[in-house]
Structures are given as structure tokens and as C-alpha cells.
Write a structure and sequence with these properties.
Layout (H helix, E strand, L loop, with lengths): L15 H28 L1 H4 L6 H32 L2 H19 L5 H4 L1 H31 L6 H29 L13 H7 L1 H19 L5 H8 L7 H8 L1 H10 L1 H19 L13 H29 L1 H23 L3 H19 L2 H7 L6 H18 L1 H11 L5 H20 L6 E2 L15 E2 L5
Parallel strand pairs: 1-2
Helix pairs in contact: 1-3, 1-4, 1-6, 1-7, 1-9, 3-4, 3-6, 3-18, 4-6, 4-9, 6-7, 6-18, 7-14, 7-17, 12-18, 12-20, 13-14, 13-16, 13-18, 13-19, 13-20, 14-15, 14-16, 15-16, 15-20, 19-20
Length: 470
Amino acid sequence: MPAPAPGSAPAPVNPRSRVLVASLIGTTIEFYDFYIYATAAVLVFPQLFFPSSDPTTALLSSFAVFGAAMVARPIGAVVFGHLGDRLGRKKTLVVSLLTMGVATFLIGVLPTYAQVGWVATALLVLMRLAQGFALGGEWSGAALVATENAPSGKRALYGTFPQLGAPLGFIIGNGLFLLMGALLPSAAGADPSQPSDAFLGWGWRVPFLFSAVMVAIGLWVRSRLVESAVFTRTRASGGVRRLPLATVVRGHGRQLVLGTFIMLATYVLFYLMTTFSLSYGRAAKDAAVPGLGYGYTTFVLMLIFGVLFFAAFTLVSGPLADRYGRRTTLIWITAAIVVFGLVWAPLIGLGTLGVVLWLVLGFTLMGLTFGPMGALLPELFPTSVRYTGSGISYNVSSILGAAVAPFIAVALWEAGDGSPWLVGVYLSAMAVLTLTALLLGKETRHVSLDDGETARTGDRTPSVTATGGS
């Protein structure tokens, strides 16, 4: 990089602690907002917004709105990617976080179906679409803040911090739901697996309203960031593209497809271990489609225990990917996910100990596969289209993986007469697709994130720069 002109002031640099906190806190808030909807979609929304004489139909309707947000995410990726690649990462991240926060807060004040009929359902769908739209722009921006400001040889480690927001958001969101459930218990003699009247009346709203406090903290942290030097140099050299979407589709189509399928197994595993598992764990053993029969509090505590492994192994994955490469690390982890899907049902059949082992193994693999994505997807694209390209790959994969996963899982659960073995086979099949994409791709740890410069990673292997049209 050329030295600054004599007498010129050095460009401002983000302190490492600020980079890590800003990339972590934003995704924590975004995933918190998403998780509290996912929990409410199982726990209260089927009764409050999708009343039906058939509980399965109500649950699937609630999941449909959950999936609608996944469809909105690629749209958000395109819009926020355009802004991020033209105006900068900082401004775009502030707008995406504010959009998510407003939508989540408004869910907390919505009237229910019993009060205004279908209007309540329509408003919930609208807010859910806004959540998905915002999350479509959040992840890639947070990943870029982390990786574009990372020191030499630690890009994957820094890239795990926005990923860490997923388990932290889960723990905070579900922890708050547990707290409200404990403060508002069911009446004596009532079904303890069902929420109390007070919880259904107003308690469920508290986690949504509390998001306003978290968003305010996140906005304050992000307002103190300065733009990354990588983007600043690209803008100064005239490298900003007028239409980043057209550029990335025309010149980086292969990277878009590979990135999408590289994320596929991660998304399927993610939503099977969270949203589906909560439904399966709480379903009664004598129901028409039998489940594990755990009470809500018991099973969520088991989930939170598993998510602790998700968080720990997300951080572990960064140094592994920095040392051995993103592709090599993920090939081994994805192969392990294939095996995990095949032993899914036998593990659960071992009883409570087997269920806990199932959750621990699933969330451990989740951390190991999710962590390196914070570095790998941005490394597929040059600076001028990095926000757009990584965001589209990440969020289109959400449709193929997360949006349809709850429906496919419920259908396979029913087809298996209550046994989830077909759900495990589905996970393994999706992991095979990801494994294929990884084998077709190339290693990216030596790719420079600074267009036109050579990566200075300190590795012996010669470095290369991001390639493709511009």
C-alpha cells in the first residue's frame, strides 16, 4: 500500500476491540429478534394469530410466516448490498439494525386475531417480512466489518465474532421467554407444557418490546465505527460500481452459486436444531404425531445447554480455519454432518441422555460449520461487490435451507409415524450438496480483501487476489 503523502493525516482506524464488539452486538440483536419470533411461532402464535381446530395446521401456518421472512432476506441482501457497496459498510449497518429493531418492537404491540381478525395476521406477516429484509443486510455487513478490519492471519477468527451473535441471541431470547414463563406460571391443575393465560395475554410481548433497549445499545456502538480502509481505498480509486448487483451476477455467478450451496447444510442444521427441535421436543408422546413429551421449560433449558457448545465451537472454528484453510476445515465438518444425520434417530432413541447428546453434537457441528462462513463468503468476492455478493449467497441459501426446512421436517416427522429418522436423512442429503460445492470450490484463506493487493497472511503459500469480472 502506498505511503501517505508527507504532512497528510493518517486515515482513522477502528480499534480491534471496537470492531469485534460492533460486529458481535449487531448480529446478537438481529438473531435475538429472529429467535424470539421463532420461539413465539411454536409457543403462542398458533393460538393468537392462526386459530385452527387442527393444531398441526396452526403450527404450519405460523411456520409459513417464519419462512416468509427468509424469502424477504435476499431482497434485503440486494438493497442493503447496493447501499453497502456504494455508500459504505457503516451507514448501511446502522439502517439495517434500525429496521429490524422497529419491526420487532411493533410485533410486541400488535393486536391478536381475537381482537381484529385477519388484520392481525396480515400485520404480523408485514412485520416479519421487515425483519427478514433487515437481516438480509445485517449479516454480510457485520462480517465485512470484522474481516476487512482483521489483522494478518486472523481473518477467520475475527469472522467468527458476527457468527457468535447467533448462539448469544438464542440464549438471551429464550432466556427471557423462560423468565416470563417462570414469572407467569400456569394455574394449578393446568397443563404445565402450555403457556399461562397471563403469558398468552401479555407476557409474550415483553421480549419483543425489550429489543428496543438492545437496538439503542447497538446503534451507539456502531455509530462510533469508521469506514474500513479497504472500502475507503476502493472508493478513492474509483472502484465503486454503479450497479453492484449487475456486476456480481455478470462476473461472479459461479461464486454466488458455490457460496449459496456451501451455506446450505449450515442453514438446514441450524433450523432443525432450533425451530423443529422445539416442536418435536414439546409434542406429547401420545399425540397423533408423537414427540418427546418434554415440558417447554425443560426442553428449552436442554436447548440452551446445547447452544453453549454452539457458541464455544464457533470460536474454536476460527483458528482451525486460519490454520488449515476454510475449505479443508469445512469438508471434514460437513462429512461429520452427513454422519450425524444418519445417527440422528438412534441417538434420540436412547432416552434423555441420548437427547442431550443429540443436542450437544448437533450444536457443536453447528458452531464448527457456521464459524468459518464469516470469512469464507466475503473472500469469494472483490471489495466493490463484496457486500452484495456475500449477502446474496448467504440469504438465498436461507430460502433453500431455512425457509423450507420446518415444513419438510414436519412432513417427514409425520411420514415416519413420529420417528425423526427421515428428518436426519434429509439433513444428510443437504450436507452432501454442501460437500459437493466445497469440493468444486477453491481455498480462499490467501485471497486478499484489498482489491489489487496481495494478501499478507504470513503463510508460505503464494497469495492470490479475488478474481472475477468487475
